[in-house]
Specification:
With 163 residues, the protein is mostly beta strands. The chain has no helices and 13 strands. Strands 1-2-10-7-6-5 form a six-stranded antiparallel β-sheet, with no helix packed on it.
Amino acid sequence: AADGLPATDGPWLATASAVRGGWEARLVRVAADALDTATQWTVRIGGWPVAADRPPDQEEGPDAASVRDASGLTSRVIALWGDMVPGVYRPPGAHAFGPHVAVPYLRSAAAEPPGGLFAAAVALSADPAGLAPPPALTAATGADGRVTATIRWPDGEQDRLTL
């Protein structure tokens, strides 16, 4: 929990992902029938951890966060769906991955309604040429209450995921 209290059980989540090239599209949907409306929940989608001998650099902007070590290894997370706020988590002290670790993430900006959908593009790369553009995502809720997301990759290919 962000306030330092012990974590508690939250609502059920449905998750799915699709990978193409250097990008992974991650989707999270809050279960429509498992939300305790008296409790405020936050959804967080994390990127990949980056460890280094010195603290990795970080960058946060509208709908995105990234961390980078001195060699150029970069972890990036970009919001594709839902109102999300970027951040970077730095565990205190040494970590299993190394002496200094940083993890970019996105968290929901407000309490989550039943059936809420969130999606992010996540990448980990040290390619000096940089990453290809991230995928785009559209979503629609069907008559059965299920959400179908269409992921459009920069090369024109598409994936459909239903939650």
